[in-house]
Design goal:
Rossmann fold, 8 strands, three-stranded antiparallel sheet, alpha/beta
């Protein structure tokens, strides 16, 4: 039977980088569900669709094809109608669009089967906002990863600067705070710790310490 690790937490908590590294160490597949929402948000942006009109979003979902693929190293690529958009969806604008698009029930339903099917066939570490509460409620391990808004903003700021993007720290911090509010107050699958999850706060942990902590929690619970 495959092993599923549900890793939830707010924006900028380091879920993606930590989960990716932990999955590699454990020889699991890493699934970044946030990338799926960012991809639908990108598709909406390209068609100038504001993610508030359910009819327009329904029509969009009927027209596009979102897929996950994995390279030889087990690293995830997200495809939009066959195009690898993995790099195009990593901007503050894409992050905010993902927050809006993920609040739409039709979008969450559209992606649910895809996420569950991957978990059925593979040992996975799957990160997102509602993995332990909605997507994989029976996951063997549930972790809620968090850090202070300031710590998360600093990490995101550094990441974007290293990619050569012209960003301001205050803008990143405001985006983090805004997305925290939006994600935790949406009607559909709001961000919250799953029942029985292990809480991990990485505010005062560096990357290696955070990865080791997550691996330790997984090994203790499988």
């Amino acid at each position: 039977m495959s092993i599923a690790v549900a890793l939830d937490g707010p924006a900028g908590a380091g879920k993606s980088s930590i989960a990716r590294r932990a999955a590699k160490e454990l020889d699991y597949i890493y699934v970044d569900t946030g990338a799926l929402y960012r991809t639908i948000g990108l598709a909406a942006s390209r068609l100038s669709i504001e993610p508030v009109a359910s009819v327009e979003v329904d029509n969009l979902l009927d027209k596009i094809k979102v897929e996950l693929d994995f390279n030889d190293d087990g690293e995830q690529m997200v495809l939009l109608d066959g195009e690898d958009v993995s790099g195009l969806i990593r901007t503050p604008g894409a992050s905010m669009m993902a927050s809006k698009i993920s609040a739409i029930p039709q979008v969450r339903a559209y992606l649910l089967d895809l996420q569950r099917d991957i978990a059925k066939k593979n040992n996975v570490i799957m990160d997102g906002r509602d993995i332990g509460t909605v997507v994989l409620p029976n996951a063997q391990v549930k972790i809620f990863l968090t850090a202070s808004p300031e710590a998360r903003a600093k990490r995101r700021y550094k990441e974007l600067c290293e990619k050569g993007m012209d960003v301001k720290f205050d803008d990143i911090l405001n985006d983090v705070i805004t997305r925290d509010y939006n994600d935790s107050h949406r009607k559909t699958a709001p961000l919250k710790p799953a029942e029985g999850c292990v809480m991990v706060d990485t505010t005062n942990l560096d990357f290696e310490q955070s990865v080791n902590k997550i691996i330790s929690v997984i090994k203790e619970n499988v």
